[in-house]
Amino acid sequence: MDPNGGSSSAGAADGASDPAAARRRHSKKPKYSRFTQQELPACKPILTPGWVISSFIFVGIIFIPIGLASLFASERVVEIVHRYDKDCVPASYRNDMLAYIQSNETNKTCTRTFLVPKQMKSPVYIYYQLDNFYQNHRRYVKSRSDKQLRSRASENDTSSCDPEDVTANKSAIVPCGLIAWSLFNDTYGFSVNNTLLGVSKKNIAWKSDQQHKFGSDVYPKNFQSGGLIGGAKLNSSIPLSQQVDLIVWMRTAALPTFRKLYGKIEVDLEANSELTVVIENNYNTYSFGGKKKLVLSTTSWIGGKNDFLGIAYITLGGLSLFLAISFLLIYIIKPRPLGDPTFLSWNRNPAGHFN
Amino acid sequence: MAGGRRKRQHFGRIHAFSCGRASFNGEHSLIGGPGFSRIVFCNDPECFEAGQLKYGGNYVRTTKYTLATYFPKALFEQFRRVANIYFLICAILSFTALSPYSAYSTVFPLVVVVGVTMGKEAVEDWRRKRQDIEMNNRKVKYHRGDGVFDYAKWMDLKVGDVVKVEKDEFFPADLILLSSSYDDAICYVETTNLDGETNLKLKQALDVTANLLDDSRFENFRAIIKCEDPNANLYSFVGNLQLEEQQFPLTPQQLLLRDSKLRNTDYIYGVVIFTGHDTKVIQNSTAPPSKRSKIERRMDKLVYLLFSALVFLSFIGSVFFGITTSKDLENGVMTRWYLRPDDTTIYYDPKRAPVAAILHFLTALMLYGYLIPISLYVSIEIVKVLQSVFINQDPHMYYEEGDKPARARTSNLNEELGQVDTILSDKTGTLTCNSMEFIKCSIAGTAYGHGITEVERALARGKETPLAQEVVEDEDNVEEINETKPSIKGYNFIDERITNGNWVNEPRADVIQNFLRLLAACHTAIPEVDDETGKISYEAESPDEAAFVIGARELGFEFYERTQTSISLHELDPMSGRKVARTYKLMNIIEFSSARKRMSVIVRNEEGRLLLLSKGADSVMFERLAQDGREFEVQTRLHINEYADAGLRTLVLAYRELDEEEYNEFNEEFSQAKNLVSADREEIIEEVAERIEKDLILLGATAVEDKLQNGVPECIDKLAQAGIKLWVLTGDKMETAINIGFACSLLRQGMKQIIINSETPGIRALEKAGDKSAVDEAAKANVIQQISEGKALLNVASEDSEALALIIDGKSLIYALEDDVKDMFLELAIGCASVICCRSSPKQKALVTRLVKVKTGSTTLAIGDGANDVGMLQEADIGVGISGVEGMQAVMSSDIAIAQFRFLERLLLVHGHWCYRRISFMICYFFYKNIAFGFTLFFFEAYASFSGEAAYNDWYLSLYNVFFTSLPVIAMGVFDQDVAARFCLKFPLLYQEGVQNVLFSWTRILGWAFNGVLSSTLIFFFCACAMEHQAFRKGGEVVGMEIFGAVMYTCVVWVVNCQMALSINYFTLIQHVFIWGSIVFWYIFLLVYGAMDPNISTTAYQVFIEACAPALSFWLVTLFVTVATLLPYFSYAAIQMRFFPMYHQMIQWIRNDGHSEDPEYCQMVRQRSLRSTTLHVDILNLDFKKFMFSFPFPLLSNQTEDLHC
């Protein structure tokens, strides 16, 4: 008899245990596991009044102190902001500031004096602030060659630097690109009560930039040698890794109003002392209507002066507490128990399902 | 098999209709012509001519791809999606100067997404491949030569090979039957795999080859078969066999199809004519149906919406960019000189600002591409596959007896399962078991059988009449009896007056004897004797027939052998009280057809008398009774009506004696008619039969019960509570259908029934007159009138909130489905709580399905088990096949297969509901997260004079969708549950959230989109204000683009992931790992990426370690932005949850308050689920409104137990 014929053709009345056992062995019955049964242990949080109110209170309690601390820190920062782009143009050029700045003949030196309102503990950071300057423009951002900046071997790697890639006789510009070409070139000299203050440029650039992105064997070459001079020139005997102004400048800003670190003064500035700044006003922001500001600022643990974060934290904390109270009140005044079905969407709609 | 060769008999006489011998005419003349050019050299596949023909081998490939075609084909499939095309174009453009970011970072996510999808395809195909390998390596005996048969693999068979197939083996290819173990070369074939029919088919070889009975005789056998080319038609075959210079016609009668099974026959010899992909079954195989869910279709619209948003944003950007660019040169003077507008490229040329703007438009399209969720499709596909696994693995949908788990054949429709509005159900085999039980009979005007049917039980339950007690008592009795006696399938007859041979003592024992004898003899079943136990089982064409034979056997008339000319019974002899064997000579079988509604056999008994035994529907049988045969007519009719009321199928049994002369005349006419080859053959046969089936003597009537499947009434009740409408489309009689309706709680007492029926006397009279157009017109007018009457009732009923049921018969349905009436009909049908269509054809089933689907626009689910349901299953939005007794046809064309109707409850209410929620939330969330991200880019652009510079590092951008936000949403799609399964079942109305589509309405989608815009606005402006221009850290360094990007991106990652944490209802460990893991992974990524060589990491180099991490303000900004951005949503959610809870949220409240076991609470929420269509309406009498508002709700209760995560 055919060996595989037996089981399948067995009659209906045949209730022998053998095939049943076989079926059990090869059963297609799904195996039980908490995973496939979707019964994994889980917590099922819902927004109960308790949870809602306690989270609001929690946020309030945490945020208000943070906000106060931040605001306090920000308030402690002493900041002097001085706009000089207009005032440093002689009255005779006021109507054509562009001609003034583009001319080689004019005297660009300009001296400004102002009082230090509060004591400024060292280090006092010196920033220049530019307005309406789109360092985040795509053409501008892309116009650099990181490879070239990094090592002498890739000196000719200037393909991304258009239009400041090569000189007229096709030799590579180092550093190439629009960013480097438009390097900020105003300079500041400080004196307090007629004593000259040293400006330190130490550690104003990122350490990683100096060590890994700007090569110590790469020297400026053919820089600002074309017909059109953009900004500052570089000392071609100093390697790029030491050109901190350039390094700072090449960290492009995110927004069109930005500050860049110029240097630091490493002595305390006393309150009410008279600070004199000698500015070499070289940089052309006049053609695109950008402002130039000189900023002196101390820092705290939160960074520079900006009250936003502190105020925001306090506001949010306060809002949370307010919401906590409002929810508390609503829950007390209008305790709607669960399950009022009249609020179901399909019950509100008279033309609902069963009409 | 014990029996050897059987006697040579003319089997053709039994199966009157199936063995018409074809002669050379009609199609056979086409052989050799176009379409009929196949030539097979039998038993000589290696000969030269055969080699020339180059027919394919028997290797069958069902995979979609081969190694060579996989890449091109699978890639093509991928890029048929609009979104993917867009990303492909972006990827190509990213190699040009237009690109805002590096090419690799654009290509990478596309490669990942496409790669994952293709990987999934490959895995699926590999599974098919393994099946193929198994199939192709099956063994079969084939003729190796010299009369020796040997095993070969299926795939090695060639056209022309002679194979020997043994009992219960599958045919390896399409064969022409040459001979079999039977003398007259017949064999039985089971075609369940092909058409789902379970009855055995009879095949017979040509006489000329029937003598090839030994292996050795094939040594010198040579023949040539010329036949049609491969085609998909299973039921036709044209060819001829050339043997020894003679031609013999071949018909489907000799054709054995691949994948069908040899049964009841020891072995056959056959010659292979079609192999592999030429076989009819493979030619017939169609790809599984591809349906798309409503949600997915809406999702496509959403993608288009996002595309338009993308185009709009890009357009705005381009206009501004054009304007600012044109201002770069004013009268030849450079304004923004640092951009060198005097020496520029086309992209930034102020002199050609419009061109620059247009090119910028392309750049912007790429830049804002993050609005389009690239990973949406692949994520959804992954999620759906996993959801299908859950459906397949659900032990609550596993059918122990049949060893059948649920099987989602397609994962496309998971969420559609949560939106079903109307279920269209088959009755037989779907609601019922399709296993008939012989339960009652009426013999000689006396009703026998005490069994209580389920319908009676249900009716008794509904009425709560004294009968209920009886029933309960009876039920106990039944159970006792059942305990003592092993139950026999197909038999549930309890009446000690008849059983155990007691019938001989009944007053009309002679009639009872005739009755039982008729049951045992008048059928087409085939007995199968178990050699070991001696027990007999039957192979019957329908379960009804099996029930009769089994019933007769149990009552003492055991049918044990059928030969071609005789039927043998073991009968209880009333005189001696012993079993005697009696053989009846089988003269003719007049088969059953749906037109005739009856079947008869003519037999000659041992005394030599000729008897016509007949059984049929009451409507045709009573009119054929002789005047003196109507002795019991009144009582029998009464009983039949009672049986119909009890939901039983009834047949009337009658007989008559024939005299020789009459028979001979009939036999001659009958054989002539059978041998006719004209189109009206059947009609002529019918006519001949009509003449002999008259003047019958009534014996009685039988009643068989088609048992309801387990749990059907409860399931239907649940579905009704869930607001799902159930239409039953059945082929049954109206009375039966109505009774089943009652039994399964589809109809209930006190429901008003609207019955639309074309069987009115007026129409019948017209029919008799034979005027077809008049009948049509009258019937149509009648139907229209009935429908409008029904509608009038509907209006009245809606005021009284009375439930209506519509019952319509097939004939009326024809008119109701006509174009001008169908709207009216549908309106009526929708207004009714239950709809039953009786006597409907498969085509009508499909038409009704389409009508409901198209006209109401709601989601339809069709469920059925038989081949007649296929149309309906394919037409409906979701086709659910019952993998029951009726074979695989329905399952093969279904989207989801389950074993029992009751599993529908869990499939829809639990899996459907969950899948709907998950997928709809998934899509909303995808849009949210991409809008939240994409808009920050746009805002940044506004501060970068729309130059197309991205705020973030290239790799941050491209990994956003791949790593930092994708896993939590996938985990949500797989695991999230609003409420546990038992609550889904406890509160069925929850299901309406899907039907009403409240979770994926346009308001909700736009709400999420708005939330996305809000989030991105807050993130960007808070970041911009917090990190304006002041020093960022103590060392005085200010914020550059790289820090700004990293901080903002950190905020986005936090916000988007915390938003997910806020929105999901079900935190498993996996959720925790994925959500918090994604955030942690972002920091890890920053560390690792930042540590890479600056050539790779570019602006991200050391950003985290050197600048962000040491700066306290970085952490403060992140914390603030995250909390501030989520606060609006949190407040909204808190208010909504508390004061405008959706249904699932109410249940969550109940669960959370620990009241889930408190019946009062549950009733309160459930009250809405109790509809007038359900059975349990009366349970509820509480004044809920009062209760609800007087109930003091604890304000700050200790509900935290559940929340310790």
N-to-C CA distance of chain A: 66 Å
Number of helical segments of chain A? 10
Which two chains have the most extensive interface, and how many residues on each? A-B, 128 and 145 residues
Alpha-beta classification of chain A: alpha+beta
List low-pLDDT spans of chain B: 1-25, 464-486, 1169-1205
Any low-confidence stretches of chain A, pLDDT <50, length ≥5?
1-23, 338-355
Q: Determine the fraction of residues in helical runs of chain B and give it as a percent range.
A: 40-55%
| N→C terminal distance of chain B | 67 Å
- Globally, the shape of chain B reads elongated
Q: What multimeric state do the chains show?
A: heterodimer
Radius of gyration of chain B: 38 Å
Q: Name the helix and strand elements of chain A from N-terminus to C-terminus, one letter apiece.
A: HEHEHEEHHHEEHHEEEHH
How many strands of chain B?
36
Question: Helical content of chain A, roughly?
Answer: 25-40%
Lateral strand order in the biggest sheet of chain B:
16-35-34-33-17-29-32-31-30
Mean pLDDT of chain B: 81
Transmembrane segments (chain B): 83-101, 107-123, 302-323, 357-378, 926-943, 955-975, 1005-1027, 1039-1057, 1069-1092, 1112-1135
Keywords (chain B): ATP-binding, Magnesium, Membrane, Metal-binding, Nucleotide-binding, Translocase, Transmembrane, Transmembrane helix
Domain P-type ATPase C-terminal (chain B): 891-1141
Membrane topology (chain B): Multi-pass membrane protein
What does this structure look like?
- Chain A: Its main location: membrane.
- Chain A: Residues 1-20 have a biased composition (Low complexity).
- The complex is a heterodimer of chains A (355) and B (1205).
- In chain A, 38% of the residues are buried.
- Chain A has helices at residues 17-25, 49-76, 97-102, 138-142, 146-150, 178-181, 207-213, 244-250, 308-333, 345-348; strands spanning 42-43, 79-83, 109-115, 124-130, 187-192, 195-197, 258-265, 274-280, 292-297.
- In chain A, helix 2 packs antiparallel against helix 9.
- Chain A is 28% helix and 14% strand.
- With 1205 residues, chain B is an alpha+beta fold.
- Chain B contains 40 helices and 36 strands.
- Chain B starts with 37 loop residues before the first strand and ends in a 15-residue tail after the last helix.
- Residues 1-25, 464-486 and 1169-1205 of chain B have low confidence and may be disordered.
- Strand 1 of chain A pairs antiparallel with strand 36 of chain B, so a sheet runs across the interface.
